[in-house]
Amino acid sequence: MNDTLITIAEKMALIVLTVSQWSGRKKLRADDLELTDSEVPSEELVSLGSKRICNPDALRVFGTLKGQADRACLKVGTRFLGGYLIPNDQLAALSGELDLLKTEYEVETQHFLTGYDREIEDWILRHPEWERQLRTAVDPAAKIGTKFSFRYRPLIIQPAEGQHDTLVEDVADIATTVFHEIAQIAIPLEKSLIGKEAMSQHALRTFRRVQQKLDILSFVDPRIGPILDQVERFLRQVPPSGPVTGSMFQEGFGLWMLLCDEDRMARHGAGMLNPVVEAEVDAEVDADAEVEAETEVESDVETMTEVEAEADIATHLDVSLDASDLFDDFDDFDVETPFLGVFEEARLNDAEAEVAEAETKTIQDFGWF
Question: Which of 42, 275, 309, 353 is the most exposed place for a label (fewest CB within 10 A)?
Answer without folding.
Answer: 42
